[in-house]
Amino acid sequence: MKRCTAIFITVATAVLFLSSCKQSGSSSSSGALIGIAMPETQVTHWVKDGATLKAEAEKRGYRAEVQFADADQAIQNRQIQTLIGLDAKLLIVGSVSAEVAPAIAETAKKNVSVIAFDRLIQNSADYDYFITFNGDKIGELQGRSLAEALGLENADPKAPKSVALFAGSITDANAFSFYDGAMGVLNPYIEKGVLKVVGPYPKTSADKEAFEKIATGWQSSTAKELMSALLKNEAKNLTLDAVLSPNDNIARAIIEVCRTDAKYKNKLPLITGLDGEFESMMLVKSGDQLCTVFKNTTQLSEAAIILADQILKGQTPDIPGAYLAEGPQAKLGDTGKKTVKTYLIDPILITKENINIPVDAGFYTASESEALK
Q: How many CA atoms lie within 13 A of 24 on its CB side?
């Protein structure tokens, strides 16, 4: 009888111990695999993000596997299936397009948590978290930089400034946020007659037909084609004052095309950018690109892993440097099927005057940082 009592006490103690571990989460996530699915390698920051996410995960005791999809959603979906098969407990996904939704549905069936990284996963109700930069603010910074550089506040309607409009991808919700943020600044000047749009003019991204005409799919080759066509047609007999470009990759493509037109030999249009890529930072330094918007993706990647760690440990997310989107901003997490919890980090406008900010943040190699000083 004493032996049975001892066995019962031992078993009960073990059950209580295991239950305690499960509730605290202190050991359940130890050594777990975090899968990282990035969309492509053409845009520099995705490569950096993949490496930083992996390093931050491993620093916290997790295993990490990074996959790049070559901007092909079918490839990314297969990679997500592979990561699920490797028994990943959580996936961080920078999606190629909304067609990632079926793969995300598979993660839900396997109880694998998902964090949408820097791009909202649209048309899905099968995940709960999104972490990104404030996309509306990115666009606002781009639009405001053009308005100020063009002097639109005091411009004369009899001599309006001219601008051409470019956007990102019709499959990327960020592209809509960036564009709408910028046009929220620029539309009042267009309506006042001090700013004239040359080429297609979607007042907002909701004008899908017009938006598709300026969408580049984030591809420099598409941007070159659109800019070349613009210079041969609507902008043939005038000199553009400005170009709203959604990111640095597109900005450099636009600059390359402008340099083939004699009108821009000595002075390029004012051109915006995004991502703080080294090549564009050098153009900002030289004055060939008006500005870029710095998204400290190192900070974003670290924040994403902190969020992942807290999810896996069953903790309430509390991420230094990030804030939960609330009120009108909560719409940034609207997938079309649910509104996911969205954590935001604020971006920073970079011009010649504050080019040191991303340098001081350690965003570049030693030689690149030296070149930007």
A: 9
Residue 185: CB atoms within 10 A of its CB come to 19
Using H for helix, E for strand and C for coil, what is the string for 191-234?
HHCCEEECCCCCCCCCCHHHHHHHECCCCHHHHHHHHHHHHHCC
- Structure-token match 């979906």, residue found: 77
CA torsion sign, 59 to 65 to 70 to 73?
negative
Task: Write down the residue that tokens 């070349």 correspond to.
Answer: 228
- Decide: 181 and 258 in contact? Cβ < 8 Å: no
Which stretches of 261-354 are DSSP H helices? 278-286, 297-312
Q: Reading across the β-sheet that carries 90-93, which strands appear in turn? A: 63-68, 33-38, 90-93, 113-117, 129-133, 341-345, 323-324
Residue 80 has pLDDT above 60, yes or no: yes
Average pLDDT of the residues in 226-252: 97
Tokens (6 digits) for 222: 């598409």
Per DSSP, the three-state class of 155 is coil
Between CA 236 and CA 240 the distance in angstroms is 10
Q: Is the model's pLDDT at 214 over the cut of 90? A: yes
**Which domains does the chain carry?**
27-127+296-345 (3.40.50.2300), 135-294 (3.40.50.2300)
How far apart CA 281 and CA 300 sit, in angstroms, is: 20
Measure the CA–CA gap between 121 and 119, rounded to whole angstroms: 6
What is the CA angle 236-242-248, rounded to 5?
110
Residue 220: both structure tokens together: 């420099």
pLDDT digits (tens, 9 = 90+) for 149-189: 999 999 999 999 999 999 999 988 899 999 999 999 999 99
Strand order in the sheet with 242-244: 195-197, 161-165, 242-244, 270-271
- Taking the C-alpha atoms of residue 130 and residue 118, their distance in angstroms, rounded to an integer, is 7
